[in-house]
Amino acid sequence: MAAPLKYFLDTTSSLWMNGALIDKPASAFTSTSSLHGGQESTLLTMLVPLLHHGMVYAGIPYSETELLNTQHGGTPCGASHVAGARSDRPVDERERALCKAQGKRLAKLALAMHKMRLEETP
Questions:
Q1: Which residues contact 67 (CB under 8 A, 6 or more apart)?
Q2: Domain ranges of the chain
Q3: Of the options 2.40.160.20, 3.20.20.60, 3.40.50.360, 3.40.720.10, the CATH number for the domain spanning 21-120
Q4: With contact defined as beta carbons under 8 Å apart, do 66 and 86 qualify?
Q5: pLDDT (tens digit, 9 = 90+) per residue, 25-44?
Q6: Which residue from 19, 84, 111, 117 puts its CA 20 to 30 A from 92's CA?
Q7: Three-state DSSP class for 83?
Q8: String of DSSP letters for 89-121
Q9: Which segments in the chain show pLDDT lower than 70?
Q10: d(Cα 85, Cα 88) in Å, to the nearest integer?
Q11: 1/83 Cα distance (integer angstroms)
């Protein structure tokens, strides 16, 4: 993962110690300059601190057909974009569809978890 994001996550130990992010929904996405540029391994390294916080991770299920058809970006671990060596390649329609699907899944998870918390409240 990018060093600034790693640095930011390293500053969240007080949240971890207090359990502030337990059962909060999370997701991640990435962009690289080349195909096979480490998209999935980047997402996996971003996932580890979120799980340590007790967060609930939402990736992209294979029921999203664009995941099976994309030529450039997208994994079950999260949406990705291949920007090209000069970072001049725009997000294509399949990548955009995967981003939207991941966002919708995260929103549905957040709403379901919120409803569960409301039901638990006496």
A1: 60, 61, 74, 75, 76, 98
A2: 21-120
A3: 3.40.50.360
A4: no
A5: 999 999 988 877 788 899 99
A6: 111
A7: coil
A8: PPP-HHHHHHHHHHHHHHHHHHHHHHHHHHHH-
A9: none
A10: 8
A11: 16
